[in-house]
Amino acid sequence: MELYQLKLFVDLAEKKNFTQVANENYVTQAAVTLQIRKLESELGVPLFHRTTRAVTLLEAGNRLLPYATNMLKLSDEAKEAVRETKMEVSGLVRVASVHSVGLYELPTYIKKFLQKFPHVNLRIEYRTSDDIYRELLAGDIDVGIVAYPTEMSRIECRDFSTDDLVIVCMKDHPFAKKKYVELSEMAGQNFVQFTEETPTRRATDAVLSENGVTVNVRTECDNIEVLKQMIEIGYGIALLPRNSLTNNDRERGLRLIDLKDIKIERPLGILLLKNAPRFKAMRAFVDTLVPRVPETPAS
User: Fold this and answer.
1) Are 255 and 169 contained in the same domain?
2) Least C-beta-crowded within 10 Å: which of 66, 157, 185, 288?
3) How far is CA 174 from CA 31, 124, 167, 170, 270, in A?
4) Strand duo 143-147 + 120-126: pairing
């Protein structure tokens, strides 16, 4: 068995489409078919059930899949381990962040990191919090960045930063004329919110509930840019991270107003898989986000 064959096998098991696997691996569909047939011939059993509409794993394929996935992972780790012997920092760092952090908090850090380590390939993807925890546990990403981080038995959390939530509305909204708004004034307001499974939504719901404030949630979305568009077309107001309001948003008429009687702080954290290899490039990226404090020599 060759690693290339195993990669095509794993990709096909996931995508269930020869054409898509061929495109993503920059080969022809015939080449994918040939390699899968060679793998099946070597093993002496068919791995997939093929029809004109679908490709599904047979029992032999299901048994091979976890081994193939692990072999590819070990191969990647071996490559990184060898690269560690070089002086320069290189390799791939896979990062997943929630939109509200990745779009507004990370760019400065990413620029600094890539200027210092130009040989590192940095893959940034935007996911929901639940997806980030799931992908980290599955080994699909190296670093996760979320709001309201939660420590788990296999996941380590490191403090990254803290932001606060503010009211965002359009310039023609009555709140836009005020410097501060009390939380009670939000009662009955049309609201656009993050979806209920989002940690930021759960936190804002808790604050509103504890203070006896009920709002009219008109729409929900896990993408902060879509929420700002909903505000712009007059769907309602929102509680959003302060740093999410850009100069371009202000030019489009969005306004930021502070809460007068309460400050809703939102902790941001870095997620790492415990007891997993942490190669030089990955450590360098995490250190860029949260510089290590030098140990004080004993006196």
Assistant:
1) yes
2) 66
3) 63, 39, 12, 9, 38
4) unpaired
